[in-house]
Amino acid sequence: MQEALNDLEARLDKLLGKGSPYQMSDKAKRSLAGATWVIALVIGLLQAWSALALWQLGHAVNTIVSYSNYLAASYGSSVVATQLGLFFYLSLIVIIIDAALLLLAVPALKEFRKHGWNLLYYSLLVNVVYGLVRSFSNVGGGLGQFILQLFFSAVVGYFLFQIRGLFTADTAIHTPVHEHRAHGSGHHHVTKSEDQ
User: Fold this and answer.
1) Comparing C-alpha atoms, which of 34, 33, 77, 83 is closest to residue 58?
2) Angle value at C-alpha 121, between 39 and 114, nearest 5 degrees
3) 181 forms bridges with which residues in the sheet?
4) How far apart are CA 87 and CA 93, in angstroms?
5) CB atoms within 10 A of CB 99
6) Is 18 left (phi over 0), alpha (psi -120 to 50) or beta?
7) 65: Cα within 13 Å, side-chain hemisphere
8) How far apart are CA 109 and CA 130, in angstroms?
9) DSSP annotation of 176
């Protein structure tokens, strides 16, 4: 499984990252990479809040549906509504997984470690798979929904792979760079601590 993920990562890097004909400037890449942990934290917290709100809403809807069906049965009528099904719970699980991946990535992203970038990559893949499954839903699904999800994932993937190189062990941005000015020489001596 890990080998397949690594192979897909290498292919996507050739398409969206190093091999993309549209490269971001180094300054833009560094700015985005530096802000990635904040973005992951904010979106992760929003996802966690959304999961809680969705769970509470789903519980309320199922209660109302059960009561409505009970009343309908009492008056000899057939079932008037069905409870929330597979896609509701699938959506809830995806939001929880996404929130967990994003929040777990924050500490590593702050230190520019590849592990943090990997968690964002997994989050992207989870959302693509969910978009595929969601396209088969009778509510808000269909080909249009899947194309929209693919477009959104491609845009996010482009930015993610553009900054991928800044989260590898051979890049000076990983850990703080210490500069020591030699007395009276005007030269800088730059040292870099090793990443994981």
Assistant:
1) 83
2) 85
3) 188
4) 10
5) 21
6) alpha
7) 12
8) 24
9) P
pLDDT at 81: 53
Res 158: pLDDT: 96
**Using CA of residue 9, residue 39, residue 154, residue 16, what is the dihedral sign?**
negative
What's the pLDDT score for residue 183?
Answer: 44
Distances (CA, A) of 38 to 86, 104, 160: 33, 12, 14
Across the chain, which has 196 residues, the per-10-residue mean pLDDT values are 88 91 94 96 94 81 65 62 68 90 96 95 90 69 78 94 84 43 44 41
pLDDT value at residue 105? 97
Q: What three-state secondary structure class fits 32?
A: helix
Predicted pLDDT at 38: 97
Inter-residue contact 80 to 68 (CB < 8 Å): yes
Take residue 93 and report the two structure tokens written for it: 């699980």
pTM for this structure?
0.74
What's the one-letter identity of residue 157? G
Q: Which of 177, 47, 159 is nearest to 101 (CA)?
A: 47
The C-alpha atoms of residue 100 and residue 44 are separated, in whole angstroms, by 7
Question: Distance between CA atoms of 146 and 132, rounded to whole angstroms?
Answer: 6
pLDDT digits (tens, 9 = 90+) for 129-161: 887 777 776 555 677 777 888 899 999 999 999
Rg (CA), the chain: 23
Residue extents of the structural domains in the chain: 7-168
